[in-house]
Amino acid sequence: MFRMSNDAGPSVVASANFSRNSPLESPTSWRTADSQQEPTMDRQKKSQGDEAAIDKAITSRSVDQQDVPINASGHVQELERNFSLLSLAGVGLVVGNVWPAIGGSILVAIFNGGPPGVLYEFIAVSVCYWTVAASIAELSSAIPSSAGVYHWASVTPGPRWGRVVGFFAGWWNYLAWILGAASMASIFGNTVVQMYALNHDGFEAKPWHVFIVYIIATWLACAVVCLANSALPRINDFGVFAIIAGFFITIVTVAVMPGRGGRPPHASSSFVWTEWTADIGYPDGFVFLAGMLNGAFSVGAVDATTHLAEEIPNPQRNVPIALGLQMSIGFTTGLCYLVAIMYAINDYDALFSSPYPIAEIYRQATGSAAGATGLLALVLICIGLTLMGLYITCGRTLWALARDGASPRADLMGHVSPRLGMPMWSTVSSALLVTVLGAIYVGSTTAFNAFVGSFILLSSSSYLAAILPNLLAGRKRVAYGPFHMRGWVGFSINGVACTYMLVWFVIYSFPSTLPTNAQTMNYACLIWGGLTIFVGLWWLVGARKGYQGPTTTGGVVTEAQVGTTA
Question: Where are the transmembrane segments (predicted)?
């Protein structure tokens, strides 16, 4: 069954000198460089295999003048462990940002069944993603590396295929986060433009209006992440407060104001829960399955906290807990928010003529442009904080790829700025990619839908690359950590997670409506295919020869665990 303990598994503690940025082709266990912190143990009980592996690691690497700490990824510890369990959970909650994300992207879901479709599809996809999250949490407990799924996918397929599978998984995961950042920046831009439009009659929003705000938001978020690294835990603590406070303010407002002061009343319960509305050319059953995309976009960022595993003490224990908190709070706030705004609708047809339906729902609920603007301001604050969290994740993900030689200009992308204490070039490069995507987007609903779909396809591909090989190998290729799903529980949850991602990968690639034209075509599969081809070309012409990839397989004691249980 599920197991969470303070025992990180069959690990030893080892000391060695290693050159900076050297991946360790090593055993599954290490110790810190500071011999004074070594826990008491019976050295006679060490296995000969552990001793031989440690000797090999010590003699096979260049020696510096002083000992340096090695983390669970097998690399020199370069980043400060600034995050606590609370601030790490805050990153997950802020990056996941379920209720603002599902409100900002509700345009994707409103056509797929109306209010009942939105609600039931969200519940169904959340259950599916709980199995994905549990599978990710188990791997993060075994191998708490900033590389995340990239590291795990390099290990679970075994030595023959791990190198290439991990390479593709790492790039799929990174590109998914880039498209997630582009999606959030577009929601931010649309929110600002609609706030202005609500208060200026006759204003006609243009795509370039959204694009300008998109660019400003992108680079402001990037600047904060680069220049305020030590303050990020406190910013994320504020983000938790903003998301929770904004949630309560919003649902109280939309629940209380309809029906008062001459405003139209709440929608009926039958409208919210049973009146299925879908006229997009597909059978109702398929409409339901395809409509789960909006929920998947809002709850699908399950690996966000794993990319900060090297910036928190005791990550084997704390990362799975933070992930569980992220999923629990995200589902609760997301479902309550959806119920509240569905009851606030009094003119359903008006939503289809609005370029940003959530603004129209808020206007109907409050009966005024000022009230809707205030509620949109809460969404704007949350989305802005989410953008910062996304650049934390994007930068760390590219940095983890680069330090193993998997990216172009790995020397630059894998560099941690001594002055800023963070991977600046990988973060700035991520912002440049999001800027390029913004030039493609320029306010197009079709492009936004493609970004959302591509985020799901790419992230699911990376998760599958890590989870499925482990399942097919009998779950035997990883030395599990404190969070371990034992026996049939682990097999069942991994199996459901993989089945969901494989089946819905196909479903999410279908066009949004029938018959299909250039505006309603689903370009997500085209984006996924094109990006995968580019990654394959980079593997063939650039990375294949020098790239080794991560090799540690779990059961690791990091320098942060010795004498620390925070």
Answer: 85-110, 122-143, 164-188, 208-228, 240-260, 280-302, 323-345, 375-399, 420-442, 448-468, 488-508, 520-541
